[in-house]
Each structure stands twice: as C-alpha cells, then as structure tokens.
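cron nightly-structures :: item 1 of 1
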Amino acid sequence: MALIEVNNLHKTYRLGKVDVPVLCGLSISVERGEWVAVLGASGSGKSTLLHLMGGLDRPDKRNPGKIIFDGRSVTDMSPRVLDRYRATNVGIVFQFYHLLPELTLLQNITIAAMVRHGRFGYRAKAGKIRERAESLLDSFGLSDRIKHRPGELSGGERQRVAIARALINEPDMLLADEPTGNLDRKTGGAILDSITSVRDRLNQTLIMVTHDEAVAARADRVVRLVDGRVAGSQVEESRGRKPQTAS
C-alpha cells in the first residue's frame, strides 16, 4: 500500500522574467516501508520533488497536481496543518546539516521534538524525549559527544546528528537530500549504514535523492528523473524487490 503518491505534479520557478519549469507532470508512488532512491542529473528536479513531498514548498497554483500522504492531500493542507505534517509525519535530512551552532548536540536533536509538541507538551514528555535523543546519539556512535557543539564535530558527525534530529519524532517518512554528497566515500558509506540500520529497525519509508549510482544501488528501488519527469523505462529493481511502474 502506498504511503505517499505524487500525481501529475508541476513546479515552475520564476527567474527574472523567465519561467523555468522544473517538474513537468511527474507521478510516482512509494510504499510504506520502502526505500526509494531518486537519481538524476543536476537540474532534473530531484530536490524540488523532495521539498514538495516534505511540505517545504508548494506546487504551481495552476495545474499543481496532487501529493497524497496516507490518504490526505498535502497539496490542499492549510499552512497550520502543513506545519503539523512536517513536524509529525516527515523527517528531513539535508546535505549541509543545518544544525544550530550555539546549541549542544542534545539540544539540536530535541528542538525538533519541542517544535512538534509545543512548549508545554514538550515539558510533559521531556524525560522520554531526552532518553530517545540519547539512544539515537548512541546508535550513531556519539554518546560521548552529547554536550559538544556542531563546530567541534567532523562533517560526518554533524550529519549523524542531523539524521538523529530527523528521527527524534519517529516520522513515518524520512526524506534525505544528498545526505552523503558533502562527505568522502568512506564516511558517506558509514552514514548510509547508520541510516539503513535505524530505518530497518523502525520500518520507515525512506526517499533519498542522490546523483551517485553506488548510493542508489543500495535502495529497494531506483527512480530516475529526466527533465522533471520520471523516466518510466528506467525504473530499476534493486536489492531484490519488485520495481513499481511509474509514469
């Protein structure tokens, strides 16, 4: 059963006086618990697709298409409901971490839970949230760095913290935008191992944008984007799962 479905999605950006179409009627569905790698050249629409699925951006007002998450239309959500969707259902990992430099690792992780639960709700759950944050840091080999700040960490360590932050609210879906693109291959491989371990344990849906064939090969399924559309003849099978037809 599909957790998220994208139907005939369009997104155009305005650069000066020129309209630049990025997504041109793209359609794809992802099953609950599936790991899908979205592969494509720079400018093919990979990151734009991820941002729209995560509710960070909106599709075109004219002919927008639809994004359906677990039976709910993301494209029709009010700003308030969309905020709740981002805080509750989705975890997002970016290439450049976006950690707050003045906060400790523990604070960087738990702040996402504070956004979800609000100040008073967070206070009521603070003990359990801290335990989960510490458990995530331990899973990523950072239990001894809990009071450190991002500036004291390597790039790979910062990315582990960013992943832990994305997972603290136990989202149904993890969206990762080139999570290893800023790292060397050895460190990137270790990051992928960490993501895979936690994701398999929680049976989370993972959608990962990448331009790296080796990274994509680890996914259950690879979907290639070309000029803002899914290349339907190039949907590939990986790790033994049956690929899904995309149009």
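cron nightly-structures :: done
Residues 233-247 have pLDDT under 50 and may be disordered.
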